[in-house]
Every structure is written in structure tokens, then in C-alpha cells.
Amino acid sequence: MKILTLYRLPQNGKATFGSLVREDGVPFVLTLERVWKNNERGVSCIPTGEWPMKPGFFNNGGYATWEIICLPRENVLFHIGNIDDDSHGCLLVGEQFEPVLNKKTGLVEDGILASGSAFKQFMAHLKGEQEAKLVIVEC
Q1: Which end of the chain is more exposed for a tag (fewer CB within 10 A), N or C?
Q2: What is the pLDDT of residue 67?
Q3: What contacts 24+ positions apart, CB below 8 Å, involve 49-58?
Q4: To the nearest whole percent, how much of the chain has pLDDT over 70?
């Protein structure tokens, strides 16, 4: 079973950024989540701790992904996106931290780029696995 560690950076009040690290200690993708809001479904980042994961499916995007299970809430997934508004309480992956235009509001927000490429790397790393573990650590 593969174990991924998410090292979170201190929250900036608008988003939660981090780095996802493989079992061999090498960081391989960046992450973006919403800020902590008492683990409320759809609006909060995931609590720190150890969480089992299993293969899942992202219905809104129509693609295979990984689901973080055993949370008080359901359907917490890894998926593609650029700003916290894209996350809906899930984990987004990317390759670069960068300001991004929120097309809904017209405002520039802290975000991540190259999410599609990072997601392919994430999925390739877990290819063939039936279970994995996510360890979330606050820095």
C-alpha cells in the first residue's frame, strides 16, 4: 500500500496550499484546498490525520480518481482545478502556485496551475493500487 504525505503550509485565510510527497520522500505535486471551516461538507479543507483512500470516480468531470474515505463527510476526492472555489471541499493538485483569474467573480485569487498534468502524475503514481493512505501534516 502506498502512503502519501501532504505537508500543508500555513493558511492565508483564503486557501490552503501544500505539497504531496511520495513514500520515498520526494514531493511530486502541489495541492490546494479550502480553508478550515470545522470540516463542513463542501466548504472546508480535510482534517489533519491519517485517512485511507480508495479508487473513486469524479462525476462532475467524468473521470477516475481517488476518494479519501472514513471522513465524517462523503465524496472527498482528488481532482483537477485551479482555485479554492473549484475544490468543493476536495483536494486539487497542480504543478505551480500562481495567481489565477476567477472567471465567476473577475477577481485574481491565489491558485495552482498545470492541474491536468499534475493529476496525471498523481494517478500514474497510484496506478494498479486498490488502497492507499493519505497522511496530512500541518507545517
Answers
A1: C
A2: 95
A3: 49/135, 49/136, 50/133, 50/134, 50/135, 50/136, 51/133, 51/134, 51/135, 51/136, 52/131, 52/132, 52/133, 52/134, 53/131, 53/132, 53/133, 53/134, 54/130, 54/131, 54/132, 55/129, 55/130
A4: 98
